[in-house]
Amino acid sequence: MSSDELTPKQQAIVGKWLLDRAENFDEYMKGIGINAIKRAIGNRIKPTVVISRGGSCPQLQLWKVSVKSTFKNEDWEFGIGERTKRNTIDGRCFLTTVTWDGDVLVEKQEVCNEDPNAVPSTIRRSVNDDGELVAECLVGDVVAKRFFKRVD
């Protein structure tokens, strides 16, 4: 399969999604070092996430993730398999690589020099059999899941 061909399950990730519910997300936020005030906000907001292909430069086969909420907004572009510097919506800085593991889009964070105390994590995104986008957030032995419903 060439880099621009996706399986139906991979293609299903593309779209507009609204957070429906979460499991163990507060423990995940604790694990990555988010303070109590930001955790309270993070547990209350229901962000809209738009995942698209093309980004600002379609010929480079970039992907774009836009997160919109009443608290903060974030836009992030990446190429599959490319390591990029990224500032997360909660203000941490990482070197991030996104790859496919079968039909799962895997975001692996590594510490960058600008933020050596940030705690890296891995986020695995896929569409389940119920048509929900599931973001599985892993740090240490903590696993959280966020479930999103398609809104487009």
Automatic annotation (TrEMBL):
CDD domains per the UniProt record, alphabetical: FABP
Alphabetized UniProt keyword annotations: Lipid-binding
Cited Gene3D superfamilies: 2.40.128.20
Parts forming coiled coils: none
One MF annotation (Gene Ontology) recorded for this entry: lipid binding
Family according to the record: Belongs to the calycin superfamily. Fatty-acid binding protein (FABP) family.
PANTHER family, A to Z: FATTY ACID BINDING PROTEIN
Name this polypeptide is given: FABP domain-containing protein
Organismal lineage: Eukaryota, Metazoa, Ecdysozoa, Nematoda, Chromadorea
